[in-house]
Amino acid sequence: MTQVEQERKLASFDSAKLAEVYHTVNGVNNLQRFLDFQKTIASDPILRFDPEELALSREELISLYFKKTARIHQVYGISSMMVVEYVYLIPHSLHATVHNLMFVPTIANLGNDKQVAKFVDDAISLKIIGAYAQTELGHGSDVQSLETTATYDPETEEFIIHSPTLSSTKWWPGELGFNATHCVTHAQLYIKGKHYGIQTFVVPLRDMETHMPLKGITIGDIGPKLGFHTKDNGYLRFDNVRIPRENMLMKYAKVSKAGEFSKPANERVGYATMMLVRLKLIEGASNYLSLVSSIATRYSVFRKQFKDEDGKERMILDYQTQMNKLMPLIASTYAMNASYKKIVTLYHEMMKQIKEKEDFSSMNELHSILSGCKSFFTWETLLGIEVCRQACGGHGYSEYSGIPLAFSAFSPHVTLEGDNTIMALQTARYLMKAAQKALKGGKLLGSVEYLKHLKEIVSVQRCQATSKSDFNLEAIDKAMQANSAQLLWKVIQKFSTLMGEGESMKEIWDRKAGIDLVEASRAHIYYFTFKSFYENIRDNVKDEAVAKVLTKLCLLYGIQKLLEFPLGLAESGYFLPVHFGYLKAKKEELLDELRPEAIALTDGFAIRDESFYSALTTPDVYGTLYDWATTKNPLNTGKPNEGFMKYMKPVMGLKPKL
Hints:
The structure is a single chain. By secondary structure, the chain is of the alpha+beta class. Among the domains are: 24-94 and 276-420, Butyryl-CoA Dehydrogenase, subunit A, domain 3, CATH 1.20.140.10; 98-264, Butyryl-CoA Dehydrogenase, subunit A, domain 2, CATH 2.40.110.10. It has 23 helices and 15 strands. Strand 1 (24-25) and strand 2 form a beta hairpin. The longest helix has 38 residues, at 320-357.
């Protein structure tokens, strides 16, 4: 029996039941689908992981992943959302994922019936491959300042798409480099010299037979990056490219043949696709953290270092410091997963209201949640991956651990589709408006409902806990509310003071209050996450043993966030130094209680043994590392290295000239 198998016997709950809870989204149990997907990948000679991939050049990897992408399309269809959801189990990025996640939904959401019929079926079958060409060399998050132009010519009923400056070059969109035959692009619309803002267009890019760029199109790959080595992030320039009027997506905004513009009922309708992408990035955060925390936890029960009082080497997971690194990350994974599920429900409700009634009333609330969760979840996961790498010591630094590969694959998530700081500030803007509404007696719902008692919360002088045992879920809930409310109140007071001194709202926002706004946003999102986790346990977990262990994780999540980011509690005096002592003692108690549950908690993610692209999760870690290094590393040929013999050998023993 392996050490991992022995650890499983220590658990107080059935990990299979936990896995069903973890993989149930919007009332649908996806566990078997997830397991079947893993079986397919592991059994397919093209799709399964081979350590020899780790030694390939970028050019070789790109070619290999064209082969893998074609195989995925044959098996599942690249436009299957299952492929997007489970892509973290494939070490490098598949091609056409942006096509699936952004190109197709943009047309489906913003196109009229004729446009959907014209493009979507061909896109799903990969007859055409699309990119989402929004970001430019000079502008990313500031969408309203994009420079690409679309000028309507009523005589020919065409739009002329043009890149007027170097900085207007589309830069970063995936699929542009090698794949895309088409793109949806965003451009400033001009009709008869009048400006109508950013609109969305479908533009053909390459010949459907030769795949060569069309007239007026300059296109290519932007080069190597920190991660996404197989993704063809590209550049694109338009030189007065003409497209038919029908290629402007016109479900909401419209341009008539005569050049008459009619704007949508809600200017934010174009954000629908971006919201879906952020939703998937939120899901990806918990997915990647589940993968890497599982690798580190399994390795931590295999690895033994230093002897105990009986002279036996101690398992490194038995050290409190190792548990302190890993268990809070496992708690965060479950917390983010619960939040993702809640947001999925909110997203589907919003899209139903938009499609059936053109009702956008819930968009601002959901936009604030998505922006904040995208920001703080991806930051936490990227940092968490690095914590796991360090927790595995030297072996974590090896590509064979799988952790550096996950880091490079996930690292773009903190930047793409919205810089995290900008996203956090968008959440803060919504919070500021909600607070002002609350102070005027307005009604608040959803994630900000607790702020209707803003004045009462900030007027509470002190936490009532007198020992660590007082810190139950209710006490943590109150403390997280207080932390969020106090930070928000602080920034409101700063605005009031500075505006009273003659500062403008814009100047304060940009130059005086940004740090406070981000911290208020962070505390709010952590409270939303804690609340979502607690509600998911209360409403959806029927098994008593599973509920009990998840409750401990929920409590640990809340305590960890309060200890990491306690500014509102400390500055307001809600917590005295003694309260931080109680909180730390409660955390240590939870780490001790959760120690025997560690492996079973990672089993709850339902990642099969063969799905880890890691030597550190195998039964014989040292044997696997040695085997991969000696048989899967092409540098070990058994002969002297050619470069060494050509350059180093001749200078051995040579005295330097200087």
